[in-house]
Every structure is written in structure tokens, then in C-alpha cells.
Design a protein that fits this description.
The complex is a heterodimer of chains A (111) and B (114).
Chain A: E1 4-7, E2 10-14, E3 19-25, E4 32-38, E5 45-51, E6 56-59, E7 62-67, E8 72-77, E9 86-93, E10 99-101, E11 105-110
Chain B: E1 4-7, E2 10-13, E3 19-25, E4 31-37, E5 44-50, E6 53-56, E7 64-67, E8 73-78, E9 87-94, E10 103-105, E11 109-113
Parallel strand pairs in B: 2-11
Antiparallel strand pairs in B: 1-3, 3-8, 4-5, 4-9, 5-6, 7-8, 9-10, 9-11
The chains are: A mainly beta (111), B mainly beta (114).
């Protein structure tokens, strides 16, 4: 099965700085890579996703990059704000409908 | 309006007493999932349905069962809950669309085992 690794497990940044979270996956059949933000006690919320035929995608302050050859993808948050503080999960999915999550990154944005 | 609804939000059961968690959806999605999420951990896929086809993850304990009587409803049955089964249980739905398979999560049911 798929194995998704995520780093770092915790990340603290000053407000206004950038945050980068990295994930690697093992199954070359994976072709869809969503990122979720989960606030304490709440459901995971999809914040951005990327398909395997795209190398980069941006949505305002959030961007995701994908390197299929190296099997890694990254989340970039620029101009961080305190409300960005949460746990972020990457995930990988193939046509089999299963989703496999990374271990999560707890992001703290310090005002 | 809530699209994936989980009931109850909080469930307390006794050690060994069967418990059922429910999930319903108004999206008419083909796929429904059950995840287990323990504190400070990632959601762990237990199983999923594609329509009526049941797909069990290899490491899902036999203690966990699921039923999907129709497109809208899916149930998680825990036959003999142990203390280690205390967790948040998340239901999700998806429909493959343009080579993407966006998941929609319910708010979760937090299960306590006494």
C-alpha cells in the first residue's frame, strides 16, 4: 500500500513569514494529492490539491508543488497569519479511491 | 447546509458493549469512507464503499464492521469496543471528478469507551 511521510511534525513561524511542509509518497500510481487543514476538534478541510499532471498550483497565499519523479510534494504558505495556525495533513490517492494521509504538521504562527 | 452528517457527535459506550455510529450524505456521492483519528494523529482509513462494493483496509481489525444500506447512509459497527478504540471517527464522501477525487468530511463522532 501507499506510505506517505510528512515533515516537519511541528513548525513555528513568525507572522508574515513563509511556512513550508513537505511530503513524500511511495506508490507511483498515486495521482491526486490534497492538503487539509484541521483545527482542534474540527473536521479536516481541503485547502488546496494538485493532480499528477500538474507541477504547481497556487491559490492566493497557498501554493503546492509536485515532483513526480522524486515522489514528493510540498505546501507553501506565504505571509502567514495567526489564523493559519492548525494541523496540516497531506494525502495521496490513486484511482483506487483510497486516501492515505501523512502524519501531520502542527503549524503555529506567532503574532 | 451540512452535506455529510454524523450522529451522534459524542458517543460514550462501555468496554465490550457494541456501538453503532452513523453517517448520512446529501451529495449522492458514490464513495463513502470511515476513518479513525486518534489524538494528534492522522486520519487512518478503515474501509470504504464504492456504491455497494465494500473495500476493507488490510490492517482494519475484525472488530470493526460497516454497512451501507443505500447511497445516503453508512454505518460503522464496533462489535466489542476496547479502550484503544476511543477516538474520533470521521465519515467522508467523494465522487471521482476530472481525475480528482475530492473528499467531503463530516464533523466526526468522538467515541469514549469506559
Amino acid at each position: 500500500g501507499e506510505n506517505v511521510e510528512q515533515h516537519p511534525s511541528t513548525l513555528s513561524v513568525q507572522e508574515g513569514d513563509s511556512a513550508v511542509i513537505k511530503c513524500t509518497y511511495s506508490d507511483s500510481a498515486s495521482n491526486y494529492f490534497p492538503w487539509y487543514k484541521q483545527e482542534l476538534g474540527k473536521r479536516p478541510q481541503l485547502i488546496i490539491d494538485i493532480r499528477s499532471n500538474v507541477g504547481e498550483k497556487k491559490d492566493q497565499r497557498i501554493a503546492v508543488t509536485l515532483n513526480k519523479t522524486a515522489k514528493h510534494f510540498s505546501l507553501h504558505i506565504t505571509e502567514t497569519q495567526p489564523e493559519d495556525s492548525a494541523v496540516y495533513f497531506c494525502a495521496a490517492s490513486s484511482t483506487g479511491n483510497q486516501f492515505y494521509f501523512g502524519t501531520g504538521t502542527s503549524l503555529t504562527v506567532i503574532p | 447546509d451540512a452535506m455529510v452528517i454524523q450522529n451522534p457527535r459524542y458517543q460514550v459506550t462501555q468496554f465490550g458493549k457494541p456501538v453503532t455510529l452513523s453517517c448520512s450524505q446529501t451529495l449522492n456521492h458514490n464513495v463513502m469512507y470511515w476513518y479513525q483519528q486518534k489524538s494528534s494523529q492522522a486520519p487512518k482509513l478503515l474501509f470504504h464503499y464504492y456504491d455497494k462494493d465494500f473495500n476493507n483496509e488490510a490492517d482494519t481489525p475484525d472488530n470493526f464492521q460497516s454497512r451501507r444500506p443505500n447511497t445516503s447512509f453508512c454505518f460503522l459497527d464496533i462489535r466489542s469496543p476496547g479502550l484503544g478504540d476511543a477516538a474520533m471517527y470521521l465519515c467522508a464522501t467523494s465522487v471521482p471528478l476530472f481525475a480528482k477525487n475530492i473528499q467531503y468530511f463530516g464533523a466526526g463522532t468522538r467515541l469514549s469507551v469506559l
